[in-house]
Amino acid sequence: MSAASSTPTVVSEEPTVVETETELPFSTEDPYATEEPIYAAGPEGEIDKLADEKGWEYDGLYSTASAFVKDICESLPVSAIDGASRPQWLAGSGNLDGDGKAILQAGIPKLCPKWMPTLKQAVAGDYDRWFTSGTYVVSSKPAAEGQDEMIPPGTYRAEGRMENCYWERTSEAGEILDNNFATSARKITVTIRSSDGQFTSEGCAVWKPVK
Q1: Within-domain flag for 149
Q2: 50, 66, 96, 141: least buried by Cβ within 10 Å?
Q3: Least reliable range by pLDDT among 16-30, 108-122, 124-138, 174-188
Q4: Domain-terminating residue out of 75, 103, 124
Q5: Could you give the number of structural domains in the chain?
Q6: Percent helix, percent strand, percent coil in the chain, to nearest 5
Q7: What is the DSSP string of 35-95?
Q8: CA–CA gap between residue 199 and residue 150 (Å, rounded)
Q9: How many Å is the Cα radius of gyration of the chain?
Q10: Do residues 194 and 200 lie in contact, with contact meaning Cβ atoms separated by under 8 Å?
């Protein structure tokens, strides 16, 4: 009998390398490193950069200061054509409150410079005031907060197709000084005197000062 021969099986095992993170005794982050904001090229980016540098705040409805200015530029041609002059609309819209005035003063010259005279009039409060239906106290002084609306003495004209238009001037005691009811009119002119107490209008379109 011969002994059976066997060849041993050789198993090769590669060593397992375990990677470990070495914790350094100091931080590798730059404590002074900050992310610089990226601004769009052109006037929009200039407005946004200036607003950030100045720390100006604007309505949260807008993503950027330039978006706020652009909206006002687009609104001015179509707003304030039925019931108020454009500077009157801008002054009464609340868009000049807070930092709004500074943002518009910086942005309108860049995005819609033709509206700069309107902005200047709104800021100065020196502009024509238009009046729609309502009762107004006759006074040259602007109304304080909480007071009735006021109308300065002067000559006013309403134009357009007016049906069932009624207006009246009254004394401070409420006595009717002059009035009229027009069932069909295209143009009506009324002079309000400084001695009048109130002026009332219903359904008469928009009263604008006559130059």
Answers
A1: yes
A2: 141
A3: 16-30
A4: 124
A5: 2
A6: 25, 20, 55
A7: PPPP--SSHHHHHHHHHHHHT----TT-SSHHHHHHHHHHHTTTSSSSSS-HHHHHHHSST
A8: 9
A9: 36
A10: no
- Residue 35 lies inside a defined structural domain of this protein: no
Cβ count within 10 A of residue 54: 13
Q: Please, are residues 65 and 51 in contact by the beta-carbon 8 Å criterion? A: yes
* pLDDT value, residue 27: 56
Task: Verify that 120 and 48 share a domain, yes or no.
Answer: yes
Domain boundary among 94, 124, 154: 124
Residue 50 Cα to chain centre, angstroms:
18
Q: Measured in whole angstroms, how far is the alpha carbon of residue 90 from the centre of its chain? A: 8
Do residues 104 and 148 share a domain? no
| Eight-class DSSP state of 96 | T
Residue 32 lies in a domain: no
- Enclosing domain of residue 163: 134-209
Residue 17 is assigned to a structural domain of this protein = no
pTM: 0.72
158 and 186 in a single domain? The answer is: yes
Strand order in the sheet with 185-192: 185-192, 154-162, 207-209
The structure tokens listed for 80 are: 């304030």
The pLDDT assigned to 176 comes to 97
